[in-house]
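Cross-posted from the bioinformatics board.
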Amino acid sequence: MLAFLIKRTANAAFVMLAVALLAFVIFRFFGDPVEMMVNEQATQADRAELRERLGLNDSFVTQYTRFVTNAAQGDFGISYRNQQDVMVLIGERFPATFELVLVATVISLVVGIPLGVITAVHRNSRLANALQLGSIVGVSLPSFVVGILLILGFSVSLGWLPAFGRGETVDIGWWSTGLLTPSGRAALVLPALSLSTFQITLVMRLVRAEMLETLRSDYVKFARARGVPKARVHWVHALRNCLMPVITLTGMQIGNLIAFALVTETVFQWPGMGLLFIQAVTFVDIPVMAAYLMLVSFIFVLLNTLVDVTYAWVDPRLRDDAAKAGGANG
Amino acid sequence: MTDPVLDVRGLRVEFPTRRGVLTAVDDISLTIGRGEILGVVGESGAGKSMTGMAILGLLEPPGRIAAGEIRLSGTRIDTLTESEMQKVRGRRIGAIFQDPLTSLNPLFRVGDQLVETIRLHTDLSKSAARARALELMREVGIPAVEERIDNYPHQFSGGMRQRIVIALALCAEPELIIADEPTTALDVSIQAQITALLKRLCRERGTAVMLVTHDMGVIAETADRVAVMYAGRLAELGAVEDVVRRPRHPYTEGLMGSIPSLRKDMDELQMIPGAMPRLNSIPQGCAFNPRCAHAGPRCRRDTPRLETTGAACWLALTGETA
């Protein structure tokens, strides 16, 4: 198990180094940072002096090493645009994205799981067929379209919910939360719904497929033969056997949601990391872009590693195979 | 005379399919009295398990009971609604399924599954139900029950799991137990233990048992009477000694001839030529006639019916085949 852990962690570190290299190389081509930092009256000497100070004359390897060393310590430099520490900027924005993703995940589970059970139990019924059809629409619609439709319906026509922003927030330490104020909660509804549409259908389809499998099993039939009421058999005995893959999927999808939130945040002007990134792109704010790329990759790699380690911990066969095959599946 | 525990009359189970209606169980009548073990024997697909599922009211749609009556101690149960039937299953009819490895929910402790079943059918409190669960586990022969009750199914061996399944079937002291191939998935040595346990428990409690199996040996050891099924119909019904020693239906005779024996000196096992017909191609008359050495014209024309006992065979019924 220890060997597996070390191998898996080494893999993760290697992936992060590769991502760092990509981030470093790509953003070298986004233009000359010196041009963006100095004002127009700066002389050639000033520029050369700044270039020297920023270490841009050093060799590629030296610069890359410096980038990685600093990034590992959470130092991505100063935003060109705001002249603020990039990590401080991201730290301010992260809670907004995280709360959005969290609420969207909760919605997708609370709505998706029951829908999956219903479509499996009442398969071939009209309701189930309608839900199945609806789920195809849910999968196919791009999330920005869903967002715009929600704004049109609930903000413009009905005027029930705000169309943009995060409402009032309350600071708890460095974490600013919108969950504690009425306007914060109201502002969260539409973006979270929009972000969760795809997730709901994903969860629903997964639960449906798992349930169809489980409903055929002997222990479901035997539970019925013991006199356990149908509803309890479906919602307790069968459903519980379907949840393992749902938990895995949800864990893996959190990374995706954080990345997808970029679109949703743009549509709803949600002050999260995604919006920060889009604004950074507009202003060629390279340190912010690099930090965002690194952070999202880090979350992905972290989740994947955690899932793999959890599997190995749950399933001893996986663990032994990994030890023998030298972590080939890690 | 009191009503038999189980009284099935003219039971017919049909599966409507796109290519016509398949009859899986055709005109089955049988009774089981208090404390009696009725063996139901036949090949795969003969309709044995289907009969058991029909009695439990657990036929998978589109399968349905098309004709006949099922009475449990005098009251009809085939016409009950789903919620009424829920109070019969587990409470008045216990069930034991073939594969103990898959009959128990893997994510629930065995104690919780026992307590759940007990509390569904009785008014016992949680702690009283747990005490009863411990008692049942002891009764079916599980050692160190105090430690084992909080184990998960995968921590038990196959034989131990089947003991738990039996305990689950006994939770509410049912009048009838339907045991569908209870020993088929087990090792031979464990088979004997489980059969003996089942027999003892039912004798002690006066529970009626319908023992569905394809193993004639298990029937001979355990059952009082035996019903032989072929292609969804009853071929022969009678006391075990009679059916085993003096089979009257040619199919039963063939079945007995195909059991290997250490005592008889046989060069090879006798076989019944051919195979059981598929449900969509059951021949007219006696379903066995294409494979029967004694078949006459009447066997190909009219279907022989079995009353309460005997063989559904024109030869046995009339003494001739014409």
